[in-house]
């Protein structure tokens, strides 16, 4: 039993050391590929080219930065990685039999996309919370948003802001307008189902709501966060 216990301790400590090192590496260098990209590649029955090109946050339109915050996590700059009010609201909605809705923050989504796999198991959620804690304490809010905008799925085979700008609007991420940014943010809950152009009525309605939220939010300031 003592040998087993010591082995388990070594495994846990080794995992913690490796995970911290990986998070510190990604604090400074671009994330080249994510587990989700690998999973989607093997899930696809047909060959879909992975579109992904890293861009520093200075080359991503402030419109898109603000749009994803307004659409996905309006308390991003003030919470510590977990928006408890959003989690509570999602829990109540799901318990009341309403349409399933997640309460994941941008930090949680970043942790999941960069370090983990998709799924709803408690084990994976526990790891997600652990990596969220790490990036919130080792990265700045600006870095979290930068990695998020370069890693998330924004269409079939489309990952990150630059690829999304090119794919949906044939322009660089830095040149996206307010309406274009809102259109991309509107499809994020189901980027393989919805379209940012020639959109459904639901996406058009959601885009209008996001634009209104962007105007109400005001200027986005990340540098000191």
Main attributes?
single chain, 225 residues, mainly alpha, Penicillin binding protein transpeptidase fold, two-stranded parallel sheet, 10 helices, 2 strands
Number of domains: 1
DSSP summary, beta strand count: 2
Give the number of helices: 10
Large-scale geometry: globular
What's the CATH topology label? Penicillin binding protein transpeptidase fold
**Relative helix content:** 55-70%
Q: Which spans of ≥5 residues are poorly predicted at pLDDT below 50?
A: none
Molecular structure report:
The chain is mostly helical and 225 residues long. It has a single domain (32-217), classed as Penicillin binding protein transpeptidase fold (Orthogonal Bundle). It is 58% helix and 2% strand. It has 10 helices and 2 strands; from the N terminus they run H-H-E-H-H-H-H-H-E-H-H-H. The protein has a two-stranded parallel ribbon with strand order 1-2. The protein starts with a helix and ends in an 8-residue tail after the last helix.
Provide a quick synopsis of the model.
The chain starts with a helix and ends in an 8-residue tail after the last helix. Helices cover 58% and strands 2% of the residues. With 225 residues, it is mainly alpha-helical.
């Amino acid at each position: 039993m003592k040998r087993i216990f010591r082995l388990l301790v070594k495994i846990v400590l080794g995992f913690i050391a490796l995970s911290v090192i990986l998070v510190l590496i990604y604090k400074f260098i671009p994330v080249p590929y994510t587990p989700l990209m690998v999973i989607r590649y093997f899930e696809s029955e047909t060959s879909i080219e992975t579109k992904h090109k890293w861009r520093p946050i200075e080359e991503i339109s402030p419109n898109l930065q603000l749009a994803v915050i307004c659409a996905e996590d309006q308390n991003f700059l003030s919470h510590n990685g977990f928006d408890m009010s959003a989690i509570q609201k999602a829990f109540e909605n799901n318990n009341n039999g309403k349409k399933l809705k997640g309460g994941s923050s941008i930090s949680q989504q970043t942790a999941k996309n960069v370090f983990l796999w998709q799924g709803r198991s408690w084990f994976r959620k526990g790891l997600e919370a652990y990596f969220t804690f790490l990036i919130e304490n080792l990265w700045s809010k600006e870095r979290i948003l930068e990695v998020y905008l370069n890693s998330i799925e924004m269409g079939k085979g489309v990952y990150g802001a630059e690829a999304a700008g090119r794919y949906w609007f044939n322009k660089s991420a830095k040149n996206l307008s307010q309406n274009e940014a809102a259109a991309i943010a509107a499809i994020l809950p189901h980027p393989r189902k919805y379209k940012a152009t020639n959109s459904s009525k639901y996406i058009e309605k959601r885009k209008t709501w996001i634009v209104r939220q962007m105007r109400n939010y005001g200027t986005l300031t990340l540098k000191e966060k």
